[in-house]
Amino acid sequence: MLLLTSFLASIDFHELEEPVVIEETGARAGADPSVMAITTPKETTCNNAGCRNALQVGEATTFSAFIQNSGDADINEMGYTVTIYLTDAAGNAGMIAKDASGADLQWNNPDVMCDDGSVCDFDSSNGEQLAAGAYLDGGKHQLLLQGGAGPITWTPTQGEYLVEIKVNSPTDADIANNAELVYVKVEDWYDIEVDLQWTSGDNPEFLDAASLQAGEFTLTVTANGSDTFSPREVLIEVKTTSNTAFVSTATLDGEAIPLDGTALIVTAGTEDTNGDGTVDNDDKVNTKENESDLNATETDFRHTLEYQNAWTVNGELVPGNSSDARFEITAEVVGYTLYGQFDDCIETFTPVDASTGEEGETETWMNFCEVDVANDDRPKTDFDEITGSKVTYDDIRIARMGVHQGYNSDCTGAQSSFVQAGTGADLSVGCALLIADVEHRGSDPTKNYGWNVSYTVTRDGATVNTGVVNECQEGIFDTYVHNSLGLGGMTSTAVGKACVMLQVEPGAYTFEMDLLMNDKPGPDPADPMVDSWAGATDARTANNLQSMEATVLNNLPVITSFELVTEGDIVVGQEGLLQFAATAFDVDDPSGAGLNFAYNYQGGEIGGCSGTQAEQGNICDTPVLAEFIGNLVVTVVVQDNHMGEVSQEMTLDVWNNAVATATSDAGITIEYPLQYFALSEFNITTFADADASSYDNVQLEGFSGSYAAVAAVDYAPSTTFQANDILSQSLSVTVDNALNATSLWYIDSSNKWVLLSDTATEVDASTEMFTYSFAANSPVLPAGKMVLMGGELAQASAPDAYVSGFNAAAQKQGAIALNWEITNTLRNADNVKICISEDDTTVTVPDCDGGFAAEGAKAQAGDYSYSGSQTTHGAAYHITIAVCNEEGCSTIGVADVTADKRVDGDFTVSNLAVEVNADGNSWDLTWDVSGDTSDVAMWHVCKGNSEFDAANMPMDCGAGVMVGTTTMNVDMGPVNNGKFTYFTVVAMDDKGHMSAAGHMNEAQDTRVDDTSNPDDGNNVIDDGGDGASSGVPTWTWGLIGGVVIVAFVAGAFILSRGDGEGGEGKDWDY
User: 907-1012+1026-1069: which CATH topology?
Assistant: First the structure.
């Protein structure tokens, strides 16, 4: 089996969520809808400096994605789902997010594509099916609600989310690429909005002062946001025209606005924070709070702009005496103060021990303080202007400026995104259409103006593009052909467009566009396609210049598939080529025309495997080279036009291929083809003729009779490989027909014979060949002898030898002893099989299925012991034994044995009596027995020096008496006056198992030591009788001797404790 492992070398967030699956197939057969990339909303990326592409609370967003048919058949039915999941900055998916009503933030449109245009957005029966390789909508697609209800729209609340777009189709060939995820962070926003309006006249933005002595206006400042926002000391810079002929005086809330071009700074908000109409100490606010010292709070008066509470002041402008006076008033936020717990307020303190100099644990206090802020989240509302004039007011302006993107690498195709100046959003590398919307802002809309726009583009501080444009005929749907601005012509309009297509690289960009009004009439020369204009001077040039700063980032390509097309095992020198195929997607180049592919391995580049996708560089065909042997790691590297690259790896096994050959002096030839997992060479190092006479009368396993060798060779390979390093192997030996060889055998180092082949195939008229096919998972055949045997092989039969004299008997502690003899001679292939099963007479040799199987000694007689640890007391065991080989078994010996581990029977020993014998040096014990004593062979008297229970019975149990006898004489031992001896009587069976009992009676030694010792000179203490007279009748010695003999034959009475020592408190082992 081909080992195939893939590694992701360069991934982004959504690749972590939906890893690319490396497949061992070619191009996907069938239709395959795939979400290639989500473009709206953009993925949020955050670092210590903040977050890029975050959404703002309440800022409605739609959803757009590139959806491609990655298969090789048309898609006729398709739907999709948009789901918003809760998550965290680590990207851990949670539950589906909810809207304000508690409903899931999930939109399902099953009717994206079908064969009914009245139901679905795309009618597959009318040419709108999604063809193989095509993108839905021709590129970026804005996802739609079911039933034509418009785009799917989400108005987010503050939080962190995962946005999933998932497609589905009943003909989907691969669901692994159906979904993409992007991380989106939604942040609160804060804004200070400035609004200027004329209250004189009927136009709040333009004042016709021809008949007015003065114009009244208002300035309104409002603090707004998605959450409470009450800034302090909001500073507004107010300016007017610096021409006294045009402006006589200008005031705001009683203060004069300078006429020299400088600004009047006003503070929005009120110090009357409690709203009682007066400003006193009660209106002071905290300006600093120390978390470590509540008494250190500082207060002062501050102007506060309350959240969503508009602050308005009135102003007046008196026009100058000039008959053509024209003027403007501007207002702009230049700064404000916030109060709260900010980084600037953090205070830390690390105590130091004065005696040791050691630093203690650092303390951190999150204090409250004021910080100065220069801008807010919506800078477009930070500025406003109003204009006026006594005569016709000539004015044109740039109404909107921005950049369109989403084109192919050659700048063809349609735009898929727009970033407007002032939003702070990032741009992507590649084609970028810089565009400005211009408009007529003069007081007489029928007066046409001639115009041009100059542009300047800088990257990282260096100018990279300049030029002049006045129309836009590329990159947008609603193109614009140059004309004058105004309604005084046949085809002219009050609005126009100017654009230029650029190529942008990664870096910090500044785009500037400056609208210029022609001061001479035109066009010159006359152009029938352009309406004429009168020369004029722009009265308000401040609105002619717009600037946009943006960071251009390179979105790395995404490898959407990396596949091994070649099927089967990979072997050096194989006939077919090794083929790989990769596909990639670049959101900055949807066509993929600018992507370059290169294939590498550990040793460097793979020759001939590089190029663009258009040149089929994404497909690699290469011969299987010797340097590929082993774990071949193939890496595909995809690079875009801006040097951004990603890669993925694939690991596969490449096998070496060798055919080792050798020929002996006698002309015997061996051929050994081997496919193996190693770089080293494989050869036959030894293949030499050997003495065949040693194998003149050989019994061959599995065959009857004896056979003689016709040739033999010593064989040894250069290397032996283990089974897991071998893909395939075979072996053939070619010999002369004249040898009359009938079979090929191998003898290993342990002298075991293995049949390699018993059939020869004809090579030519004089030679034949024996072939051996190795079993799966076999190693290389190690060194040994190869022997060619003569004579036709006779298939073996069941053994002639059989088991006789079979005996099985229960032993102590549950063991079972077996012994047997063998009649007739055991052959090489014969073995003695033993099968033991509990209470199941159907389990037998040779299979012994469900029982305990073993082999006996391969000899003419044998024995075997089955451990008592494997038996249960009282259980019956069925035992079979036979001589067997691969052909069957001879006569089976059978025995049934009951395992014995203890003394059985419901008996009672009672009334133990102890009396001093007449000899004065022993006790006579008598007892009564009742109950079942069928398993009792002997009674034993056990004695101890102290009272005992059954669990602590002493091991001094001496000789015993046969069952049926209830008396026994026990020697007192050495004189020990006053000592008590404690007695019990226990049973022992014929296996040597002994019961246990607590002490039943006791006796005291009342003897007194006899210290007299008359010396008769022979150093012998005479006991006054013969050797058999010490209190024991002479006739009992024979009985005692018989008891001892009987006990020995039955297994004796061996009583032992845990460690074999005589201490008290040991457990008995029966």
Answer: Immunoglobulin-like (2.60.40)
